[in-house]
Amino acid sequence: xxxxxxxxxxxxxxxxxxxxxxxxxxxxxxxxxxxxxxxxxxxxxxxxxxxxxxxxxxxxxxxxxxxxxxxxxxxxxxxxxxxxxxxxxxxxxxxxxxxxxxxxxxxxxxxxxxxxxxxxxxxxxxxxxxxxxxxxxxxxxxxxxxxxxxxxxxxxxxxxxxxxxxxxxxxxxxxxxxxxxxxxxxxxxxxxxxxxxxxxxxxxxxxxxxxxxxxxxxxxxxxxxxxxxxxxxxxxxxxxxxxxxxxxxxxxxxxxxxxxxxxxxxxxxxxxxxxxxxxxxxxxxxxxxxxxxxxxxxxxxxxxxxxxxxxxxxxxxxxxxxxxxxxxxxxxxxxxxx
Length: 338
What we know:
Blueprint: H1 9-31, E1 35-36, H2 68-76, E2 81-89, E3 101-110, H3 114-133, E4 137-140, E5 143-146, E6 153-155, H4 156-164, H5 174-183, H6 194-206, E7 216-222, E8 231-233, E9 239-248, E10 251-258, H7 263-281, H8 292-301, E11 305-311, H9 312-320
Parallel strand pairs: 1-2, 6-7
Antiparallel strand pairs: 2-3, 3-11, 4-5, 7-9, 8-9, 9-10, 10-11
């Protein structure tokens, strides 16, 4: 007897939830006076993060890792409250929480900081939870995850001190952070950068300790992890980005910035990040071209703004109580391309 591989009750359930999630997102933002946008899927530059691998086409164009640059050009063009649900592409290993082709929700507010984006985020998840479950909580993998307002705001420096005994201000160079890794029993390589070591500690000692039964914001990231964010200096000289990530049900779901609007500083960061990529990966992971249209838009004048990218597929995982991302997409990307 032929085994049925397409017809799957688990997938059918998740896709019905997906339809409701996407409709709920649109209802929420339209009620808030946002305009839905649609930006190109063939772009001259996919993004400038040093560790994200893009898909490049034979024509030289890229598939976007995010619609961010295009949406910020719309902010410059005078649209002040915009959102988008769109495909994005990252050439990273497939896992239960990542597919090389995935769906992003992004929204931006002109004349707003990242605190306003936090409020939007809390309200969006509470709106969806109320719609699905009649309360501000989500049942995910046998545990109720509260999305009731307000969500905890957890600062990166405080989390490292509490869960790993590491002061990121004192461990300001790779040698210091390598010693901390060794103390924690985390393997470190002589070639690891400060950020490599940071992420090893984060993944091993910090992320597993984040609240499992409460959605939360992780805020104020090191300046080296703030390619597109405003950076502040504390009295002790340490620098922290106006950036936050969303965690719920043990998953990282979104990443937000209070947006950098200075074109000179933005170009400097782009060049620095691409030099880091070349130094770290060489010809196997070449530099991305700088998006001159985006920088020209910043020169024309982008208003102070806040913005965020959220993985829609991971949102569907939460609301469908589905632990594997592949069940949340209409059809799985062919494995030969990933």
